[in-house]
Protein: Cystathionine beta-lyase
Amino acid sequence: MTTPSSPGETSLATSVSSLPPSSAAKSPTYAEQYKARAVNWRFSTLCASVDNKDQYGASSTPIYQTATFKGMDGQYDYTRSGNPTRGGLESHLARLYGATQTFALSTGMTCLDTILRLVKPGETVLAGDDLYGGTNRLLTYLGTHGGVDVRHVDTTKVEAVLPHLEPGNKVKMVLLESPTNPLLKIADLAAISAAVKAAAPAALIVVDNTMMSPYLQRPLELGADIVYDSGTKYLSGHHDLMAGIIAASRPDVCKDIAFLINSVGSGLAPFDSFLLLRGVKTMSLRMDRQMATAQLVAVYLDSLGFLVHYPGLKSHPKADIHWKQATGAGAVLSFVTDDKALSERIVGGTRLWGISVSFGAVNSLISMPCLMSHASISAAVRAERGLPENLIRLCVGIEDPRDLIDDLEHSLLSAGAITPNLSYSPLSHAKAAELYATDSEAWILDRARGFKRPSGTAIDKLISGVKRGLGITPVKNTIDQDIVVSAPGKVILFGEHAVVHGVTAVATSVDLRCFAVLSPRSDEKVGLEVPDLDVELEWKISKLPWNLLPVHSQGQKRVADKELDPPLLQAIEGLVNTHVEVGKTGIGSAIAFLYLYMVMAGSESNALAVTFTASSNLPIGAGLGSSAAYSACVASALLLAHSHISAPTDDTLSASATNIVDGWAFLSEKVLHGNPSGIDNAVAVRGGAVAYTRAVGGRSGGLNNLHGFSSVRLLLTNTLVARNTKSLVAGVSAKRLAEPHVVDPILDAIQEISDEAQTLLSGQAHADRKELVSRLETLIMENHTHLVNLGVSHPSLEAIVAATAAEPFGLASKLTGAGGGGCAVTLIPDEFPQSTLKELIETLERNGFQPHLTTLGGPGLGIHTPTATDDDKVGSDEAGEGVIVPKRAGLRDAGADGLASWAERLGGWTYT
Ligand SMILES: Nc1ncnc2c1ncn2[C@@H]1O[C@H](COP(=O)(O)OP(=O)(O)OP(=O)(O)O)[C@@H](O)[C@H]1O
Ligand SMILES: C[C@@](O)(CCO)CC(=O)[O-]
Structure:
């Protein structure tokens, strides 16, 4: 391996043997000997040492969390000017930087801002052309507002810098960076510094050393006047603070910088100074590990045939210059794929590599700089500066290298960036483990031999196109771009359970939803990701039980079957049940997905290589129709992918498309739910408030939209008691069979309740609103009593009914959905005081329940219509770190609380 195990160790100190010879006259005391040795401490020792002289002997520098200091003659008076914690950090870092002085500031950008204040209007700054977006933005501002001539030149080449150094140009500052970010270009720091000093002696050489840290490179020793680092990166190492460090040795420069920091008040706060001191202690350890892994990743990608930028590779065009001035290659590398969409798929497919800006932390990160850290540079300028849009940057952390390679490899495979090399015979598990332990570079080279990059020449593409046309090779179908959908849950106001037996039920959609992304993949597999349920599964399309597809579903299917096919369902259950690591809830969602996936494709040759990712802010299995919302998402995404329905036009989805989605969602509900009435999927697809009657026993069913009462408030309270809809519904059916004389009159009574509710909610009743609400409350209480008699309540539901009915609340509640736990619904009358509602919510929370306020009605199925730049944007270009995250990853990482805003940021939704 090229990276020495402790690269910085030799650079600060020589060795113990180089200590000054002891004087013959007087042998030094023990303390003197120790002091002399300490002068030569190596980098890691300096990092870990604590040199503060605390009055109590504290072994880490204490946090002096104070703005002011008493007295007139002490060392400190005001934290803006100086603070013992910050001071401790600064003197500690000065040793690490080999500088006379260092200064700790609030961010790396504050450092640059402070340094740039040394330039006066009319003077010139020479800066590089492969710059961090934030640096570029600040320099642009300086040009337009500060009267400074900012010129971008290729500062990695002496010959590009020299022509700008003529005296007439008044060059005051030359900003250098090596390696650059993200292209890892190398500048010969000593050569450029010398050339600049000779041609423009007044110019200050400033080096942004963030990519290296003082552990690997100390530009002050190479001729620089000022060095700055973003302390947020390697120095702190944990992405839990922001800081910047300026290091300098020239007294005039130190004086000016100190003056500016004191005047502006940009010094680092005491607590952050403490955190940074803590992080620095492990810097060399962390970086050794990070670099060793970065080297493996670079070798792996390089031997797969990607163009990799990393100075640790012998093939790097300026590796010799880099190793002359630095002692390690760092832990940031980048590579190109030649295809922006492919890069997005790779970035969206990794899991261990987090999508994030910044670098240098213990956790590994992946990004596409053009969409993230460098998004504030316009596309035209990026192109001019040779920054490929498809560039992927990897920032390597301290995780186990094998896990990082696994994750990256999986993503490269599923994105289609590499394919298995069929002529490769893999090493046995034991052999591979042995090779990893003895020669990790040989291990990674062997691993890379298991794959190859698909050849992408025009001729190859032509040949594979012709072959596909002739049906010669089974090239898998996929979709052109992500399909994004969402569907709401529901609350049943009247008629649950009875609706299964043909009684009318009244239900409304809620403002909690399931969201899903169907994304293309290229590895002939189908994947399912449900982060809420820890589901991360994939299957080879060819290994699915295609031979069991019912005969009538051969050929692509547009309209759903009415019934499930038991042999196919059983085969899918068998396949999915082998994933013992997945819980029961997740298993159910996988079976439903695969069933729809297969039946809708109709045959293996029509199957799509896709990943379905779903996440929901609905409580799952709590009576709010989470299964129907999920089913509607699966159905609509797959139907759109197969072009069985077309994307909405004129802001509407056609009535026939809506019915087709509903049919498939119902089929999925049958998988999840046993004997569903169809009300949940009807609401998930259509939204709004509806009266729904199932067609049973020859009686025709139907759906009636209710528009009269849109502003009724409902409180949904989750008991958090888990239950199973399938068995509760089956329980009522069994009771009906056993005791029809008990159950049938209950069903009749519920029908009367639903009929009256329908009249009240459709605005047909001739009564004022107060009377209507009071009547609805009576119906709610009656309906609940009937559900109790059907045996589907639960003590916790009864506790909610009692708590809401008690003084001072006096409200009517009932269970909703399947019961047996799950949720209760409480009607909140218009005039109900806000303060009492607050008190009710607090009471319920105190009793361990989870209340959620909502209103009646709301949108149904949502389909996202893609626009030119519709990826998930977090922050904006103006904010500097414009983060654009591939949709699949954005959904996966949003979390229940972030889903609604994730969807809102995407924009472009059409609802039924
Ligand atoms: N967000 C989701 N992602 C994946 N699967 C889900 C999701 N939500 C629900 N499911 C599937 O649906 C099942 C829950 O369905 P179930 O019918 O028991 O509850 P519900 O629909 O929330 O309640 P109810 O039917 O009483 O309204 C889960 O076990 C899971 O298989
Ligand atoms: C219990 C039930 O009535 C509602 C489940 O949300 C069953 C159904 O209608 O499918």
Remarks:
- The domain at 476-912 is CATH 3.30.230.10 (Ribosomal Protein S5; domain 2).
- The longest helix spans residues 740-761.
- The pocket of (R)-mevalonate (ligand 2) is lined by residues 492, 496-497, 499-500, 625, 676-677, 679-680, 725, 729, 817-818 (CB under 6 Å).
